[in-house]
Prior knowledge:
- The chain has helices at residues 14-26, 86-96, 110-124, 156-169, 174-186, 235-249, 270-286, 317-323, and strands at 30-33, 38-41, 50-57, 68-69, 74-80, 102-107, 130-135, 188-196, 214-217, 228-231, 257-264, 290-297, 306-314, 328-329.
- By secondary structure, the protein is α/β, with parallel strands linked by helices.
- It is globular.
- The termini are far apart.
Amino acid sequence: xxxxxxxxxxxxxxxxxxxxxxxxxxxxxxxxxxxxxxxxxxxxxxxxxxxxxxxxxxxxxxxxxxxxxxxxxxxxxxxxxxxxxxxxxxxxxxxxxxxxxxxxxxxxxxxxxxxxxxxxxxxxxxxxxxxxxxxxxxxxxxxxxxxxxxxxxxxxxxxxxxxxxxxxxxxxxxxxxxxxxxxxxxxxxxxxxxxxxxxxxxxxxxxxxxxxxxxxxxxxxxxxxxxxxxxxxxxxxxxxxxxxxxxxxxxxxxxxxxxxxxxxxxxxxxxxxxxxxxxxxxxxxxxxxxxxxxxxxxxxxxxxxxxxxxxxxxxxxxxxxxxxxxxxxxxxxx
Length: 334
């Protein structure tokens, strides 16, 4: 049986070492709350709403790699594929909030929701106002009729971009910030495909395995079951189905302006990713959908999973204005 290989130190100390790596990589622009495994940017101004995220390690650069100017402001790091605790979230919020309120922005997973909700209740007792947006962009995780049950995956990067621009540059108040990020969330859709699984640092087994000639359409970023498994086929055929599903879901229509994210889930080669990117452009052009901006690379990973996801965000004038403002983070710069 094939065994996973990882270049780590102590498998039980991964998130602490990830935090230390982030601090070094940010080169003076990031502060760690080491006892609580949380980090925040040194850019936060006194007149802004603070945007806080958090989630399990293993998806880098999501979540903490999007801290920075034009991005989010702080992040609580959970263990690999595990939610951060209320203590982490509360300490981070107290260290960063400036009296203007805090937006919690994270993926829609039960553990994250529970712990952020607990944190919000405790913070409210100390007169710290919070609002919450849960990213729900994964179209394979629930039907459109149950949109609020959908998981958050790579599309959260676009929400970070909108939230950071609105809070830092345009000084939206908490309610207006909540409304614009909720609007962005309603207009983001993602679907993923896996060629092979991944393994937790402490495990000698992959969390799922596919046959040599098999792929899985609709895979989740923790290995959650997708829509179906099928025989390996061409890149063009896979991408066409993914674009069809994405466009039918919102729907995306002729004349729409969209931002496009082609995300490497971990181990796919850049060669494959650019072949995929080519077909995404062809399919959107054939539909008369205007690609306002295209991002290609590692944005929301799943350890060493081999696969990719495609995300589309439909723009209106407000979202485009905010999206076009600059962003300087470890995971994405524009």
